[in-house]
Request: fold
Amino acid sequence: MAKQTDLRVIRTKKMIFSAFMKLVEKKGLSAVTIQEIADEAMINRATFYAHFKDKQDLYQQIFNKAITSFAKILDADIIRDGNKLKINTIETLLTQLFQEIWANREFFVLASSGTNQNTLAKMLQDLLQKRYAQLFSQLKITQDETPIPTSFIVSYMTSIFIGTVHWWVYSDGSFSPEHLAKLIIQLIANGHLTVLGLEMVND
Reply:
């Protein structure tokens, strides 16, 4: 019985998420009302408030859901071999990440656009800082023997990633998650990481 209840909760939240994103894309966040969300999701207001405190809580939970998906995949401990980065592992993780993004394309169209992009960028920067600060420190990334601040690397990675996601979710889907992951590996392995003095190895 508990499992059935959990599935109902998941389905209801998914309908609310979808309705909210559709309305925000059409009208903008400030113009959307709780009643409109309930009507679009085909639920009543009481059901909405059973899952969310208010519109802002719903908005925040959608972003938290996205960041949680990233956190499951972005594991710094498994992408390194000493002071080198494992290219095949990173490609696999990127593919999984892009599969997750494409499965939730509707959200990422919204999240990577306008002022929402700033919210997503800040949350992603915080995640990368927590997950990768120690790794970057141990890799001792320098430019002309001058240490490069981790905050700069995180900001740089975030801007590239969000720009890529924004382009991709608005595209016609001709680039598969696997294709996009391979392309990014090719670009960073022969460009950004080389400039930073990092090495990538096949694993």
About this structure: Strands lie at 80-81, 84-86, 142-143, 146-147, 199-201. The domain at 1-52 is CATH 1.10.10.60 (Arc Repressor Mutant, subunit A). The mean pLDDT is 81. The longest helix spans residues 2-27.
